[in-house]
Write a structure and sequence with these properties.
Blueprint (H helix, E strand, L loop, with lengths): L13 E3 L4 E4 L2 E4 L4 E2 L8 E3 L23 H5 L3 E2 L3 H6 L3 E2 L1
Antiparallel strand pairs: 1-5, 2-3, 3-4, 6-7
């Protein structure tokens, strides 16, 4: 099973909103904090594909979970109308 991977500043889709990320030999340096770039704790880290999740997790590596629901669960119970709303719509129940 593939686990979700953290986003790295060396990714081609990673951008710094302050434009403070500088690529060096040992990694990506942040001129704003004068430290190595840490995507998980940076407020200005963003993804071009808009896939950056909380705590610096890359959304491209997360597998989606889908479930099938019955139409009754999605729609919910019917709403009963009275008065002016009933005259405008013309039906006693709305789904």
């Amino acid at each position: 099973m593939v686990q979700a991977k953290p986003c790295s500043p060396t990714c081609e889709f990673f951008r710094c909103a302050k434009k403070a990320a500088v690529h060096r030999q040992d990694g990506v340096w942040c001129r704003w904090t004068d430290d190595m770039c840490n995507v998980a704790n940076c407020t200005y880290a963003m993804c071009v594909k808009k896939r950056l999740l909380l705590r610096g997790i890359c959304g491209e590596t997360v597998k989606r979970k889908t479930t099938e629901k019955k139409p009754e669960e999605v729609i919910g119970p019917a709403i009963k109308l009275r008065g002016k709303a009933l005259r405008r719509i013309g039906e006693k129940e709305i789904f």
